[in-house]
Amino acid sequence: MSFWRQITRGIRVLGNRRAADQEIGEEVNHFLEESTAMFAARGLTPDEARRAARMEIGNETTVREQIREYGWENTIDTWFADLRYAVRRLAGKPGFTTASIFTMALGIGATTAIFSVIEGVLVKPLPYQHPERLVALTHIAPGIHIKDLGLAASLYFTYSEESRVFQNVGMWQSGAWTVTGLGDPEDVPGLTVTNHFLAVLGVQPTLGRPFLPSDDDPRGERTVMLSDGYWKSHFGGERSVLGRRIMLNGTAATIIGVLPPSFQFLDRKIALILPLRLNRTEVRLIGFCCQGVARLKPGVTLAQANADVARMLLLAPAKFPLNPGLSARTFTDLLIAPNLRPLKDVLVGDIGNTLWVLLGGVGLLMAIACANVANLLLVRADGRRQELAIRAAIGADWARIARELLLESSLLGVAGGAFGLVLAYAAVQALVASDLAQLPRIQDISIDPAVLAFTLAISLAAGFVFGLIPAFKYARPHLSNALGSDGRSVSQSKERHRARSVLVVVQVALALVLLVGSGLMMRTFQALRRVDPGFAGAPEIETMRIFIPAEQVPDPERTTRMEEEILHKTEALPGVSGVAMTTGRPLESCCDNNPVRVEDQATREGATPPIRRFKYISPGYVSALGSRLIAGREPTWTEIYNRTPVAMLSENMARELWKDPSKALGKRIRPMSIGDWREVIGVVADLRDDGVHQKAPSIVYWPLLRENPGGAGAATRSVVYLIRTPRAGSIGLRQEIQKAVASVNPNLPVTDLKTLEAVSKRSLARTSFTLVLLAIAGSMALLLGIVGLYGVISYSVARRTREVGIRLALGARPQNVTRMFVRQGLVLSAIGAICGLAAALGLTRLMRSLLFEVSPADPLTYAGASAALVLAATIGSYIPARRATRVDPMEALRAE
Amino acid sequence: MNGPNTDLIQGTLDMLILKTLSLEPMHGFGIARRIEQISKGVFKVNPGSLLTAFQRLERVGWLDSEWRQTDNSRRAKYYSLTRSGRKQLEVETANWNRRASAIARLLKAEG
């Protein structure tokens, strides 16, 4: 009860302080009156009685104060009083306050924005139940130099049946289907999955039923589950959709369920989910078709899971028959080993490094902003030196003065934080909308409570820390010093100036680190632009993907002829100078990677030769892409339809095998398991297919109509058209292309229309993202650093007006006076620059993985950054220094 | 001036106030007078401490207060004991008796 009473009374007092004070006063008065009356009754005169009563009670005001001081509300009261005072003081100096808040807002806003990205991408758990127990079933196969191997059906069954660590195992594969019968034919993305896939994730359909083993029966009709978005956009969200059939690639599938709106999986666009329909009896040992995901039993660690998978990998060869044409050693030679990873790591990839570097960068910016505001506060505190000294002299508690200074700075910090939050919100919106970064989990990035807490924490911490500097310097009384010496001293003491100089040195040093960081990214970007990607004139290459389902055109040759017809139709469009087909756009590291046997280079019996990337092409590929033929020629249409055994190689592969590309011509190669020996007829320049920053893979180019085990030929059903035209990217061209395709076959959707330039930009996206952000941070840092320097020099000029006056009066030349101040600025920035260079040498190591063909200690970058800094510092000190020369000697001496 | 020590024994002010109020509600001056009278001038209460103590005891919930007319028709703040104040008085009295008799025993043993 008494606790409650404490609170309510306290609040009542806070609510009406005056009434409470009056009550205390009345009580004290009454005491005095009674006391006086008592003394009077003892025979004293009224005056004497009153004096006696007063003597007894002591100082009336002190008593009142003493009574009044009791209660928690008084602490709050004094804090509020200090706070009001701080607000009033800040409001009284709008220029200083605005500058400080703006500076803080920049620093805090930038830091908050990057933190919210980190929080959304790296920290937040995936939106499933117990997401920490979800692992991606990835492997490595050092035997064929593959660092990231997915899952084979044989291993899927092995893991499902033999595992001791998994609660559930699922396998999936991305896919796309041509949906007809719902308006225009449309290419719809989705997944094919094993029937436990959704159970692994812990996802239940909101409508209908989950997949059952019966859905995997190849004799039954296909079943399909819709995403919430697809259901709403294509079926108006009607519940009667269950049991309806839709046409996928020309075959009917029954809708059995609808996924929850929140469903997402690895950032993939998913509209449909279909069962994989694996037939266990037909599964062969090798065939890494898919990706695996599993849920660990509670308490199982990743290491235990890896150990269990290693055990099960030895069981698989006994459970499943070998693929025809492969020897028993093939599987063991792959040296497959488990490399399970948390599902989140797979989704997030290696963006973490970039983000931490960026957070480091904005952290530096924030530190510079804090130093700047600390500097401003020091100037302010210096101006109040006398006031503070007088207060200390008449007995003010130094803790109270320190509290007051800290409150003021914390207030600035919080106000800066509030504006920073607005900036951060805008920045995050822009970032998410621009898709500049190609960030994973972009839908998870937001200013959420965790980010708000972070912002509040850094705002308070920043306010507190930069408030500490003036508090330490000025809260303790140096009486004689402050009271006595002001004004008449000729120059300011070094000691008083030291804190500000140190701050400027720190600012300059940090700014240089950021400049070097952004300089290195700039050099990386340049280096990437200089790389020959293996194609030319990307802005003039339009690309599109066409998929011809076997259900529509079963015959392989007819399929290829249809593809050729589309090619000729687009070739005839105005402005088009060349069209060719390939599998997978350059830079998107598509397609299969398979071992290739070379006739004149015998590999150890049974051993697996190195793997190469397979691409299938049409004639005209080299010129449409703007690549170069190093030797030989391309296959012709006749060769394609005759299935003449020919192939082309990338230059690096030819050099690796035969040193000289021209020697490759006439040699024979073939895929590991199937087909005849094929003659090498051409060598093509290298293609940086995995991204400009990656080594060019060795590629074999096969003719579009491929060999298959039966010998009947297999069509390449999903092809990318490369259309070379200056009109690339225009809507007009795209409409014409769609018309051209429809004239050949109206049931074929044209998908993925984009220029190769867009693909190329995407591949540079992360570098440009980092570059842009670091460059912004770097230039803001430079600006803030120079503003800090400017402030110190102009303050110095102002304080030394008298000295300058004397110098000028004694005949000093204005240039010399200017030079004196500029020298001061340059000395400070030189010290800062030296510290900064040392710090940069250490810190930029951390960004090594973001750099491309640039050393973290690149001398050119360091020289450039230092030069920029010195130039800026000179300007920053020259402008205030010039003001010194305008001092009128007489004015200066007479003043004060 | 070196008269007899009239300081209160530390920590007993609360108890004395509670005891005084256990008879009837009183105002501050009355309480001070009563303590002086009953102790036959041994204890003299400092008005400042007394008034602060009221504030504290009221907050803790042992006292209630109201403004009333006094006999000589002045307005005064009258304090009265609450139920928990009465309980507290018992606790303090018991405590005091225990300690006082212990001290008495000690002094006797020494003598």
Protein architecture, described:
The complex is a heterodimer of chains A (896) and B (111). With 896 residues, chain A is an alpha+beta fold. Chain A has five domains: 2-71, no CATH class; 76-127 and 351-486, no CATH class; 138-339, no CATH class; 493-530 and 763-896, no CATH class; 549-747, no CATH class. Chain A is built from 30 helices and 24 strands. In chain A, the strands form four sheets. Chain A has a six-stranded mixed barrel with strand order 4-5-10-7-9-8. Chain A has a six-stranded mixed β-barrel with strand order 16-17-22-19-21-20. A four-stranded antiparallel beta sheet of chain A has the order 15-23-14-24. In chain A, a hairpin with a 5-residue loop joins β4 (166-180) and β5 (186-193). In chain A, α7 crosses α10, α15 runs antiparallel to α16 (449-474) and α18 runs antiparallel to α26 (765-799). The longest helix of chain A is centred in the middle third of the chain and has 37 residues, at 398-434. Chain A is elongated, with a radius of gyration of 38 Å. The model of chain A is unreliable at 486-491 (pLDDT under 50). The mean pLDDT of chain B is 84. Chain B is α+β, with helices and mostly antiparallel strands. Helix content of chain B is 56%, strand content 14%. Chain B has a three-stranded antiparallel beta sheet with strand order 1-3-2. Chain B has four helices and three strands, in the order αβααββα. Chain B has a single domain, classed as Winged helix-like DNA-binding domain superfamily/Winged helix DNA-binding domain (Arc Repressor Mutant, subunit A), CATH 1.10.10. Chain A binds chain B through residues 1-2, 5-6, 9, 23-24, 26-28, 30-31, 33-35, 37-38, 56-58, 62-63, 66-67, 70-71, and chain B through 27-30, 32-33, 46-48, 51-52, 55-56, 58-61, 72, 74-77, 84.
